[in-house]
Amino acid sequence: MTHVVSESCIRCKYTDCVDVCPVDCFREGPNFLTIDPDECIDCAVCIPECPVNAIYAEEDLPADQVHMTKLNAELAILSNWKSITKRKTPMPDADEWKDKTGKLSELIR
Length: 109
Description:
The protein is built from three helices and five strands, in the order βαβββαβα. By secondary structure, the chain is an alpha+beta fold.
């Protein structure tokens, strides 16, 4: 099992989670973070750090977010997204987007 970033992260990209990751498994896209399933060691230290509750253990993903497991793997492994290891400023309009749902169409690959 691995941990998965859900749609809640889209257009927010709070990076509190990357500071605590002991294996640097987060990858950064234009408006979303993803977890590389080959690097994640299931330590779960990132879960409580996310201010929008976007990170789940794969087995705990809400039913409407199961599709994010495959998407996280695809974006982390097949894209050119780089590793992110230090906290950055969230997206400028993150506070406006943090409580919105159904944001998959907003994802920039």
